[in-house]
């Protein structure tokens, strides 16, 4: 009888689409493009001849490559891009944010990609966050 209950429990879990993704962030990124808000904050993100460069840009490009995602970047300031993130107009916000960022009430920090720096995503759990954190954990930057 125990085996039947265990199997039933596993089947129920397998049928769940966890994590829930009410905005379909990951699917929208796959079907359209991964929309990244970027804030100049050397050395994490710098602009050379109008082109964004730096370790955070490289991590995002690697994540996009691994998941066959096209990328678009939107340059801006923190408060403006946080607002866009909250409206789900951006998927990820990048700009050298630390784990204890003042924006953690408005956005969800990812797992750190080094000892202290994170990306920000819209509040809540979703498939995009799950895929991004899996990539981050496999490719953590050594300080």
Automatic annotation (TrEMBL):
Residues covered by the Solute-binding protein family 3/N-terminal domain: 34-128
Taxonomy, superkingdom: Bacteria
The name this protein goes by in its record: Transporter substrate-binding domain-containing protein
Source species of the chain: Christiangramia antarctica
Alphabetized PROSITE patterns for the sequence: PROKAR_LIPOPROTEIN
């Amino acid at each position: 009888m125990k085996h039947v209950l265990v199997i039933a429990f596993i089947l129920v879990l397998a049928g769940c689409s966890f994590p829930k993704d009410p905005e379909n962030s990951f699917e929208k990124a796959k079907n359209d493009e991964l929309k990244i808000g970027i804030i100049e904050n050397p050395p994490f993100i710098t602009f050379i001849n109008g082109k964004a460069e730096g370790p955070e840009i490289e991590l995002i490009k690697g994540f996009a490559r691994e998941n066959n995602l096209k990328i678009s970047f939107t340059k801006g300031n923190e408060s403006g891009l946080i607002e866009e993130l909250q409206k789900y107009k951006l998927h990820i916000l990048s700009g050298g944010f630390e784990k204890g960022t003042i924006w953690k009430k408005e956005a969800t920090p990812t797992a750190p990609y080094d000892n202290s720096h994170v990306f920000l995503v819209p509040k809540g759990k979703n498939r995009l966050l799950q895929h991004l954190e899996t990539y981050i954990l496999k490719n953590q930057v050594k300080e």
